[in-house]
Structure formats: structure tokens, C-alpha cells
Amino acid sequence: MEKIEILKKVCRLKIFRDLSTDELKLYILLLISAQELNKEEQIDLEVIRRMSGEILTIEGLKEMGFSLKKHKLASLSLSCPEEDKGRHTLDNSGQNVKLSFELYDLPYKSE
């Protein structure tokens, strides 16, 4: 997978300009972390926390995932241990939360 070529192609798409700054940062982070397109992978939430630079909430992360999916760039899913399900922020006690993601190749095929 040529990540530089993918990034060049996706930057030319109108949908890329419609994303928020946080959504762009998350997408680029997922692209850097991905081994392949159209394959489910995982990323450590601590990496996403460092990227966000502010308090990251589970709801905020879900909203970013919804936007990436709506724009056909990626899908995200979170899994939380039972003891963390009621928490709204991804603080140190939420370290076991897993983020699975899949980057789609659909936007790049149309270019």
C-alpha cells in the first residue's frame, strides 16, 4: 500500500475538505497505522489521545468515526470492558478500550 499516493489522491477529493481538523488528524493517523486497505485493524487509544491534544470523549470519537464512514473513508468501532462502559472520557481507567478500524479504498478508485 503506497500511503503517500493514497494521501495525494484523497487530498484532491471534495469530501476531504468537508472533514473537521480532528477528523483529518484521525484519518491521517489511521492511514499511517494501517497495513492494508479494506482490512480490519486496531490502534492503541493512547496514540489517539496524544494526537487529539485535548480531552477526547468516547462520544467525540464515535462522531468522528461516523463522519469518516459517511464520507466512505473508514469505519471505526469501539469495544469497552464492562467496568468502563459508563465513562464518558477516555481517561487512564479506559486504557483497555480497543479501537478497530478499516480504511476503505472506494474514494481512491474514483480518481
Task: Using the coordinates above, name the CATH class.
Answer: Mainly Alpha
Low-confidence stretches: none
Succession of helices and strands: HHHEHHEEH
From the N-terminal CA to the C-terminal CA, the straight-line distance is 16 Å
Number of domains: 1
β-sheet strand percentage: 5-15%
- Radius of gyration, in angstroms, nearest whole number: 14 Å
CATH topology, anyone?
Arc Repressor Mutant, subunit A
The total count of strands amounts to: 3
Structural category is: alpha+beta
Number of helices: 6
- Overall pLDDT confidence: 81
What is the level-2 CATH architecture name? Orthogonal Bundle
* Main sheet: strands, sense, barrel: 3 strands, antiparallel
What share of residues is helical? 40-55%
Account of the protein in words:
The chain has one domain (3-109): Arc Repressor Mutant, subunit A (Orthogonal Bundle), CATH 1.10.10. The protein contains six helices and three strands, in the order H-H-H-E-H-H-E-E-H. It has helices at 3-11, 14-17, 21-33, 45-52, 58-70, 106-109, and strands spanning 41-44, 74-79, 98-103. A three-stranded antiparallel β-sheet has the order 1-3-2. Helix 3 crosses helix 5. The longest helix has 13 residues, at 21-33. It is globular, with a radius of gyration of 14 Å.
Q: What is the compact description of this entry?
A:
The chain is 46% helix and 14% strand. With 111 residues, it is of the alpha+beta class.
Descriptors:
6 helices, alpha+beta, 3 strands, Arc Repressor Mutant, subunit A, three-stranded antiparallel sheet, globular, 46% helix, 111 residues
